[in-house]
Amino acid sequence: MILVRTARQSDIDGVLELAKQAYPGMTTLPPERDVLEAKLLNSVSSIEQSLENAEESTYFLVMEDTDTQSIVGTSAIIASLGATEEFYSYKLNKVTQSSKELDKRVTFETLNLSNHFEGFAEVATLYLHADYRKNGNGKFLARSRYLFMAEFRDRFPDSAMADLRGYFDDDGRSPFWDAVGQHFFDMSFADADLYGGIHGNQFIADLMPKNSLYVNMLPKAAQEVIGQPNVKGKPALEMLKNEGFRWNGHVDIFDAAPSVDTKIDDIESVKNSCNAELIGISEFEHDEAAMISTTNIDSFKTALSTIAIEKGGVKIPRETIQALNLEMGDQVRYLLV
Question: Phi and psi at residue 286, in whole multiples of 5°?
């Protein structure tokens, strides 16, 4: 069975292998063992923290194939951006200027360094092993984060955002980075991305120019990728749009990928998920398909299953009950899919 659950420190080897596959382009999943071990430890600690410290929390989820006991996917939720260090993005703005003397009107775009997303939650680190990109596993992995947010809603703020992976070529080169960041940081896109994942983003505040960047002065190749996700990231963008996320002109400072956002309570999977009591075992072939999760943060798990919704609660198959370690009378959260 395929499950999504909160990560444990013992997951480090599997997470590291996935990080090596994802590199470059995923700042939150650097292929560095020490960094990933710290992320897993932070997630375990976050689950144990009281609500007073919830804004400093990060929750790391993994997808596990229980038949092979292998880690095949990752996702995460950062409770509040900017809680420990500043979070930067670029805001794409339109400017119009005119000259009466020349009878000419000019419209152009600028990029301005912004801390707009500070205080937002971030859904991040979505990565799935290539062999498992089928049977709806990607959507299952992504939506598991929303069931977690819905169940433990008081741990999160009003809004959430997501950074996509931007365009880079087969050699790992980003046209936007080569046109902008390269001139201020004197390192390759892959090196800057890795450095940010390991050391944080303070170096951006130290070296990135604070003035506006004029888009029309950038090379055409750089202009064309502003607000565009990596080809492999387009399905992720569509999933985010289907959940209610929208692009409002903010882009990633490294590769100019779109940063999308929405109100957490407006996320479709949050709005449409429900709590119910487990009242029995279902054996019917024509039950509805659903994601079903546990409601204990210490042992959060989610499975794809069938479900029978009845007046007093829900019935689910014996296999799902066992996989989620449920007992009769337990509360579950479910989302029809």
Answer: -105, 20
